[in-house]
Amino acid sequence: MAKWLIKRNRAKPGSVEQICKLFNVTPLAATVMLNRGLGSVAQVEYYKNASIDKLHVISEIPEVKRAFSLIKTAIENSVPIMIYGDYDVDGVTSTVILCKGLRALGARADYFIPDRHTDGYGLNSAAIENIAKKGCGLLITCDNGIAAKTEIDHARKLGMQTVILDHHEPAFEYDKDNNKRYIIPDADTVVDMKLENIDYPFRNLCAGGLCFKFVMELFAYMNRDFFLKDELAVFAALATVCDVVELKDENRVIVRYGLETINKTIENRGLRKLVEVNNLMEKRLTEYTFGFVIGPCINAGGRLEVAALSAELFMSEDENRINELANRLLELNSIRKEMTKKSYESLVGIADEMSDRVLVLYDNSVDESIAGIVAGRLKERYNKPVIVLTDGEKGAKGSGRSIECYDMFEELSAFRDIFTKFGGHRMAAGMSLPVENIPVLRQSLNDSCTLTEDDMEKRIIADKVIELEEADLTAARDMEMFKPYGTGNPEPVVAVCGLRISNLRFVGKEKNIAFFSLIGNRGKMVSATWFDGLDMIELINGYYGKEAIDNNRNVHESLNELKVDIMANLRLDDYEGNLRAKFYIKDMKISPKR
């Protein structure tokens, strides 16, 4: 059972009324704005209307200036450039952004995507040697490199200049006085907004977002028209959604622009084909489409075969090859879904028996390519930090996913001697370690864990308690302005109390989705959907103390005497061509007797 909370902002009295008047919005929308810290006209204007052309400027950062100069010189002297990416969506899309951008500027640019199973995460010394043999003079990393001190030294010894473009946390250690000291690779220049010495107003760009801004301003630096803006912005938006970075500030601007663009036209032929094979060409694409349909297909290549399949799809101009690649990724994603389901169910059986606050789970039957996905699902189930480990080529290998109040990278960093390799950020990490160190890791993380029961309790936080009469078409339209939703910019939630249920029916293949109406004290009626229909059956049967709803989903009782409170999203719904306000239920409880 989730804990219900109401968000309290620190706005001055009268702020809601002022915002309603200034922006012609409902009190609900004004409250949501204040809850998101939008307390000034400038902040609201930026949130609602910020343009992709008005993002923060990175070209004044000294490290970026050095990178621009190195690239410009390489282009002018026809020096071969190699872009070293990564095998997830963020790594693939940032590689595509850089490669397409540099080639359009006349660079002799190529790319390398490591193989998850043979090369592992990040820079690989053997791969670097092969790249050097091909005559590479400038090595650019994207979505990795910040933890590759040894490998960067190796690349420079082989005669390559090096540029790191990354967004992960740098490794660190504590000196004898317990002061934190960051360990930064000795590249020619390092561009990572997480570094303390980089002065930049927004530090949560993913690699795709960073590379998009980098290429956009590189075009300006070289006095060229950025004709690739729309095509590459879509890839940056994909990366931002799939890497689950905070959808605030310019991340939100990038995603909003990318979604607007892809719903007008899909310029990249490979991406268009991937949308087509997923039967999405006639549908409006959303952040959900990016995160749960397109993104997993891109990831499937790197998980089950090689991520270079996805990069090639987006770089190719050969229609036959594009068709072949898109269909192969679709097929691989179907296989990945089945593997994930099986591994998740297996680990649930193990985790259910554990009382640890940090779940460290080892199962050598789990494919290392899906460890992160399974860890994420287990994290959602238990609301605890989860690390899933399996067998790699040399010892154990796996991924972790965290909850808001647990900095996984910081906690793992305290035990760096346990690992042969690890990296990541606050909410996610990847690691390799000897199998015999797994019990040590589990014990160490739990002994040092300060999470409380309250920290691990699932919560639903409403923006506002409203009367049912407030859930009208205008209020539902106002909720549209807060899209796209994601981490740091969740869909608004409302709480409504004392409602009666009417017209209840169950739909879906297993009849586990509840459709019904909610009626307020003054007779107002609003339609609702609850995807956890089985929870609704349990709630109603528990209230009546008998099978008011049987196994065939027949409702045997009049529900007039039952009153419920809800936590829900209020959305604009197009029902048979007619717009209406509708609730999508997140949780429901029996109303206390008053």
By oligomeric state, this entry counts as: single chain
Shape: globular
Query: In this structure, how is the largest beta sheet organized?
Result: 5 strands, parallel
The average pLDDT is 93
Helix content: 25-40%
Rg over C-alpha atoms, rounded to the nearest angstrom? 26 Å
Describe it for me?
This protein is α/β, with parallel strands linked by helices and 594 residues long. It is 40% helix and 20% strand. It has 19 helices and 20 strands. It has helices at residues 15-23, 27-35, 41-49, 62-76, 89-104, 125-133, 149-157, 207-221, 229-242, 249-262, 269-277, 287-304, 308-315, 319-351, 371-382, 408-413, 438-448, 473-479, 533-544, and strands at 3-6, 81-84, 109-112, 138-142, 161-165, 171-174, 180-183, 189-191, 359-362, 386-391, 396-401, 421-425, 428-433, 459-462, 464-465, 494-507, 513-519, 525-530, 563-575, 578-590. It has a five-stranded parallel sheet with strand order 3-2-4-5-8, sandwiched between helices. The protein has a five-stranded mixed sheet with strand order 9-10-11-13-12, sandwiched between helices. The protein has a five-stranded mixed beta barrel with strand order 16-17-18-20-19. Helix 5 (89-104) links the parallel strand 2 (81-84) and strand 3. Helix 13 (308-315) packs antiparallel against helix 14. The chain is globular, with a radius of gyration of 26 Å. The two termini are 22 Å apart. 44% of the residues are buried. The mean pLDDT is 93.
